[in-house]
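The authors assume throughout that readers already know how a fold can be written as discrete tokens. A single example would do more here than another paragraph of explanation. An entry of this sort, consisting of the sequence and the corresponding backbone structure tokens, reads as follows:
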Amino acid sequence: VFAAWYRALAETVYADELGDLFAAYRDIRADFLRRVWTVRPVWCDDVRTPAVEDCVEASRRAFAAALDELRARWGEDWRRWRWGRAHPARLAHPLLDGVPLLGRLFGWRPASPGGATTVNVARWRSARPFAAVHGPGLRLVADLASPETALAVTAGGQSEHPFSPHYDDLARRWLTGEMVALGDASAAPPRHVLLLRPTAVDNYELKP
């Protein structure tokens, strides 16, 4: 509901001023909306009407428009609305995605949490709500003092071969936020260590 209202709010606030240009600038700009509320509330007025609307009225109109959109897409019962269903992640094969049928067959569109402003980022485009189009391809947690304890997960798997067992074996872990260990903490320390030292390092002066 918030995402639909937020999208409708952007249209309510500045579509009337931008006119035909709104389509090119409709992606939500949080900082702009914040400044409208705190510095330039005149943007909340709809220049197409003789009345003078304030930001509270703009918020109400946007909320009503958002509910109309959600009912049209997902039905009247709001208890059946699910963010994950409206916000699938799209994991596409880099080569087969452009091939009819094969792209859909070997792609994956799971329901996903998150949004543009969450820790588990999953940004969506306002022009094509609400499918996730931007997110982490790799998550990595590493203590450089103990690299053997590093954890990581990729979006999908290590292989791009659709019939490889590693094609999508990490997809579920990526979706749920799980990770896999990259090293073996019980392994013996390395016998040899290779150090790469740039020859020009002595020419630099380090300053705090």
